[in-house]
Amino acid sequence: MSEYKILTVNPGSTSTKIALFKGEQCLYSKNVSHDAAELEKFHNLTEQLPYRRDMILGLLKEAGITLEDVDVFVGRGGGLLAMEGGTYEVTELLLDHARNFANGVVHPASLGSQLAHEFAETYGAKAMVVNPPDVDELQDLARMTGIKGVNRIIHLHALNLKETAIRHSKSVLHKKYEQCNYVVCHIGGGISVSAHRQGRMVDGYDIVGGEGPMAPTRCGSVAVADLLAYIRDNDLEIADVKKLCTRNGGFISHTGISDALELTERAKKGDRYADMLWNTMIYQIEKCIGSMAAVLHGKVDGILLGGGMVHNKDLVEQITRTCSFIAPVTAYPGEFEMEAMAAGAARVLDGEEELKQYTGKKVWEKFDFE
């Protein structure tokens, strides 16, 4: 990687992460928590843009960091229509879709491209997004469902999933990502399990829509008939059910807490409910890993685990015991999101990857025989 200077910006629901890189070296990193009361002052997400921008500039000024020599500003993508993986130039079309949440998902990540654009305009640099959550590289067999007109889409932690696979390929197998097959998991507040075949994420779960394993705040897959009965018995609206998919499901639904550390501490103290909940989540992750291995016809070079919960040794040991017959299991605790954004931009600047253009059209609409 050349010695480019790259600033990465990752806006979250209650925080904004920033990091400045020179080549592979991180020169500065900060995760700023936002006061909930402060964010509530804004009528919508778009109005938060100047607040977050000024906070970032203030932090950098305090640290004595100037941005005049930054080559690329990279923002966390979001709000975009389904696209192939890769690094994309921030264009007016991409910005328009991010501002208007073209994919229907309202999330602070959509501010990332907008912040990167503002900084790039001010300092005469480039603006990019890398493997946003809207990446869709599903193979055709993964798209159809048993309901005509309802086809599968995915929402996953594409940025961290792909970066974990890219790093493992280079450092462990000494190959290119495009030469390898993996089952890659991101296990944190949300849980993504995905199949990667020669550089493409050919299958995975729509974790925003309620697929896959349960997670601390997500319900995971539930039988449709059971869910309909639950809606009827509890007099719920569609909005209530959507919250179970992303906010009020999983650990929250069962115990009222989302902290995996607190849940495992309860289990250690003899709380059988907490123990069963923890082990059920791991069991469901293992089932999903097996499913993705089948997608790859058993030709799996590795099972890669990333995300915050991978710091838990029990979780890693259980998955390793259950799934290592498929392929070696390797743990990468935490996440590479900031590094991934910088690395994606650097690969473009080094000529290793082509800078892609956002088309504003879904990468897949329907089968040609429909």
Overview of the structural elements:
Strand 2 and strand 3 form a beta hairpin. The protein is an alpha/beta fold and 370 residues long. It folds into 2 domains: 145 residues, Nucleotidyltransferase, domain 5 (2-Layer Sandwich); 177 residues, ATPase, nucleotide binding domain (Nucleotidyltransferase, domain 5). The strands form 2 sheets. Strands 3-2-1-4-6-5 form a 6-stranded mixed β-sheet, with helices on both faces. A 5-stranded mixed β-sheet has the order 9-8-7-10-11, with helices on both faces. The protein is globular. The protein starts with a strand and ends in a 21-residue tail after the last helix. Helix content is 37%, strand content 18%. It has 12 helices and 11 strands. Its EC number is 2.7.2.7.
Please outline what is shown here.
Belongs to the acetokinase family. 37% of the residues lie in helices and 18% in strands.
Shape: globular
Q: Based on DSSP secondary structure assignment, what is the total number of beta strands?
A: 11
Q: Which second-level CATH architecture of the largest domain applies?
A: 2-Layer Sandwich
If you consult CATH, what is the topology of the largest domain?
Nucleotidyltransferase, domain 5
Query: CATH superfamily assignment of the largest domain?
Result: ATPase, nucleotide binding domain
Distance between the termini: 46 Å
Strand content: 15-25%
What order do the SSEs take from the amino end to the carboxyl end, as H and E?
EEEHHEEHHEHEEEHHHHHEHEH
Share in helix: 25-40%
Report the top-level CATH class of the largest domain. Alpha Beta
Per DSSP, the total helix count is 12
- How many domains would you count in the coordinates? 2
Please, what is the average pLDDT? 95
